[in-house]
Write a structure and sequence with these properties.
126 residues; alpha+beta; Alpha-Beta Plaits; four-stranded antiparallel β-sheet; 4 strands; 28% helix
Length: 126
């Protein structure tokens, strides 16, 4: 996964439905040689897919990883699934990096979001 520790934590915004969500859950092996570089390349590559809307990541302390990719339509998701570099990364993941994984693809029919408004800071009197 990319190092997001310096970036603000914000989920992908809600989009006007319908669109698609690809939910990829993983448990990784101890062998992670080349994983970070490949993951960074996949994050860059998917951004070039017309109809890619964004991606959220989470990792539990116990080792469950969750990545959700959002796509405007089924064609965008199919283009990503068929990408040659992505296919090669999938094969390497099965051979080396993943103990197990699950992929769920869903059509999003309802979506909304909330962001707390920032309260302006009032300078202390002094």
């Amino acid at each position: 996964m990319s190092n997001h520790s310096e970036a603000p934590v914000t989920p992908v915004e809600a989009f006007e439905p319908p669109y698609y969500a690809a939910v990829f859950t993983t448990v990784r092996t101890q062998e992670q040689s080349g994983y970070s570089e490949t993951n960074a390349r996949m994050e860059d590559l998917v951004k070039d897919v017309p109809g890619f809307l964004g991606m959220d990541h989470a990792q539990t302390p116990g080792g469950l990883g969750i990545t959700v990719g959002y796509f405007r339509d089924a064609d965008a998701l199919t283009e990503w699934r068929r990408n040659v570099e992505h296919r090669a990364a999938q094969k390497r993941g099965q051979a080396e990096w993943y103990q197990s994984y699950t992929l769920h693809v869903a059509k999003v029919e309802r979506s909304h979001g909330f962001t707390r408004a920032q309260v302006p800071q009032i300078p202390a009197a002094g």
